[in-house]
Amino acid sequence: xxxxxxxxxxxxxxxxxxxxxxxxxxxxxxxxxxxxxxxxxxxxxxxxxxxxxxxxxxxxxxxxxxxxxxxxxxxxxxxxxxxxxxxxxxxxxxxxxxxxxxxxxxxxxxxxxxxx
Length: 116
Known about the structure:
This protein has strands at residues 3-9, 12-18, 33-40, 43-49, 57-64, 70-76, 81-84, 92-101, 104-105, 110-114. By secondary structure, the protein is mostly beta strands.
């Protein structure tokens, strides 16, 4: 069983999975690569490359401008896209995607998107 831990790092609120005390563990998955976002309809469509072979799920995080990150969704293993809709025109959104398993969470780069 995994619990969600919130950590403030360099002014960013990061969320991650903490291992349970049931002895589960292992190696944290590799970070997704090539994170990108493009306009699609009334939202932003995120894509990335799954660089891990041991993730259980992906966590999608978003913040608006300089706000705090919130968790939008978790997706099953091997997923490589997510659609975030509706978005507000003229607003800057910053996204992170992290791979998770019982060993922990990967890092993530950020991608910014201004919805037009």
